Amino acid sequence: MSQDLYELLGVSRDADDATIKKAYRKLARQLHPDVNPDPETQEKFKEVSHAYEVLSDPDKRAHYDRGGDPFGGGMGGGFGQGAGFSFTDIMDAFFGGQGGQAQGGRGPRSRVRRGQDALIRLEIELAEAAFGVTHELKVDTAVLCETCKGEGAAAGSHPVTCVTCHGAGEVAQVQRSFLGEIRTLRPCPACRGFGSTIPDPCRDCSGDGRVRSRRTITVKIPAGVDTGTRVQLSGQGEVGPGGGPAGDLFVEIQVAPTTPSSVAATTCCARSACR
Q1: How confident is the model at residue 102 (pLDDT cuts 50, 70, 90)?
Q2: Beta pairing partners, 168
Q3: How far apart are CA 187 and CA 59, in angstroms?
Q4: Class of residue 237 by CB neighbours under 10 A (exposed 0-12, middle 13-18, buried 19+)
Q5: Strand partners, 177
Q6: 258 and 205: one domain?
Q7: φ and ψ at 116, to 5 degrees?
Q8: Is 109 a domain residue?
């Protein structure tokens, strides 16, 4: 490749990494074979991608700037030679950086996640809706497993590093194509992306770190509520997987239907003279 790599991307020789990446994204959107299948355009896309492969790597760029061959085997060796070109660079061009995140690796995902919010409905009388009331409610939600304290492992054991992904939570797949080596990252099937496995799960929660339980909570309904009003109780919802923080509990109010006589009685009792 005789053309200057900086010229191919349309950037100056002192361009920073962000400028180089932005220039490549713009060109890749225009020249990618899925967008423009013309043979000449495909060849141009290979050249642009080759230039980005060199200039986005600090070592290869420094070697190139000194006049050397960044691949040690001739610049004309063809696109994708040397260390190989990651498919995530192309994804980065089309999705604004998401591919770049995958290239560096997202790492293992945490077993600890926030729990879901819960919703229950409570029917109250008209007088209770007007003046407010305190109710005790029985709710059936996921709570922290007291046996393993959310870890998911049986007593005396702990999660161990996954032997398939070595704790990365991802495995790489490499395929050959006209673009060179295409490398993609997928969640590890052995540990489901956690980076660790639980060889001896807790008997009570089956490794989830939480169990279902019925408990009693007190909710204060403020005065002046109406049907459809929701009272939020922070942290009283479902405990998350791995013993993660609980979501919120929402109590949706249903005001019981009233008869004309009950309305009259309520109106009367609302007057100061009747109190």
Answers
A1: very low
A2: none
A3: 29
A4: buried
A5: 180
A6: yes
A7: -80, 155
A8: no
Q: Which domain holds residue 36?
A: 5-104
What lies within 8 Å, CB to CB, of 180 at 6+ separation is 78, 79, 80, 81, 84, 85
Q: Which two tokens stand for residue 195?
A: 């980076």
For 176, the token pair is 């050959």
Q: Do 147 and 235 have their domain in common?
A: yes
pLDDT tens digits, residue range 4-22? Answer: 899 989 999 998 988 999 9
| Whether 179 contacts 49, CB under 8 Å | yes
Question: Are 69 and 75 spatial neighbours (Cβ–Cβ below 8 Å)?
Answer: yes
Collapsed DSSP state (helix, strand, coil) of residue 60: helix
- Cα(242)–Cα(267) distance, integer angstroms: 52
Write down how long the chain is.
275
124 and 166, same domain (yes or no): no
